[in-house]
Amino acid sequence: MMGCHPMASCLSLTLTLFLYQLDVCVSDSHHEECPESCFCTEGINSGLVVHCSSMHLTAVPRDLPNTTQHLYLDNNLLLTIPSDAFKGLPLLFKLDLSHNRLVGLEHGAFRDLADSLRSLDLSSNLLETLDPGAFGDLRAQTNLSQNRWLCDCRLQLAMPQLLLDPSSLAEVMCNSSEPQELGAQGLPFILVATDLDFCATIRRTTDVAMLITMFGWFTMVISYLVYYIRHNQEDAIRHLEYLKSLPNRQGRYEEALTLNTWL
Ligand SMILES: *[C@@H]1O[C@H](CO)[C@@H](O)[C@H](O)[C@H]1NC(C)=O
Ligand SMILES: *[C@@H]1O[C@H](CO)[C@@H](O)[C@H](O)[C@H]1NC(C)=O
Ligand SMILES: *[C@@H]1O[C@H](CO)[C@@H](O)[C@H](O)[C@H]1NC(C)=O
């Protein structure tokens, strides 16, 4: 058995010998074996084509052989691609993730494949937006058709940061748009985005919100000032009247006079 090194995890000597006889290894690095839920065929230069299509998979298999060149994960139940899901696969150049239920791709999902991957199929999923961080420096030809693209400011800001093969982005067809009145539905995002500014309304809304907040603060300060002046005036008048009610006291009378002129 070639892929089984007598590693520490292969336990004691006798057990190792026994396992070698059975042609089974319990060590954790099955790096040249096919994952349980897939079958493998030979690719070019002793690489592997790993077929895991239609296996009801809810997660990317973790024990993929490091010689994998093509990986078919289409028609499964994947919801997301976690960060570093394809680590340690330096020969992988074709990856099919179509017909899953992908709603998102985590930051760093494909970053380990930047040097090798040439073709990525993400078609027929439930993706609404693209996070440039998921792709890293990936330059692969990427099929993005048949998703739920929400054409909005976020997508507009993400597009220029994507290094993907430029023809990939032509397949982003808007299933809905935000703001809706821009009428991007059913059109390729790349076409509409050259004429329309999806971020304009957001900027305008922010400006209005700022203005309202500032006006609110201003009103509060003014009301407080008015209240403060009124309140003190009443106090002063009350004080004055009290002093006037004691006219026979010389000192008090003078004080009242000064207060009167002061007011
Ligand atoms: C795969 O891993 C084995 C050892 O686990 C190593 O000898 C081999 O060079 C690796 N192959 C590639 C293509 O990285
Ligand atoms: C992208 O995927 C769709 C649907 O799966 C398919 O019809 C289309 O031919 C693909 N486009 C490319 C360029 O491979
Ligand atoms: C587009 O969005 C609507 C809901 O807004 C949904 O019913 C429909 O399936 C979506 N189309 C695609 C191709 O995802």
TrEMBL record:
Query: What residue stretch is flagged as signal peptide?
Result: 1-27
User: What InterPro entries does the database record attribute to this sequence?
Assistant: Leu-rich_rpt (IPR001611), Leu-rich_rpt_typical-subtyp (IPR003591), LRR_dom_sf (IPR032675), LRR_TM_domain-containing (IPR050541), LRRNT (IPR000372)
**Which keywords describe this protein according to UniProt?**
Leucine-rich repeat, Membrane, Repeat, Signal, Transmembrane, Transmembrane helix
Superkingdom of origin: Eukaryota
- Indicate the segments forming the LRRNT domain, all copies: 33-70
Q: Which Gene3D superfamilies match?
A: Ribonuclease Inhibitor
Q: Where are the transmembrane segments?
A: 208-229
Q: Which SUPFAM superfamilies match?
A: L domain-like
Name of this chain's protein: Uncharacterized protein LOC100144399 precursor
Gene label: lrrc3cb
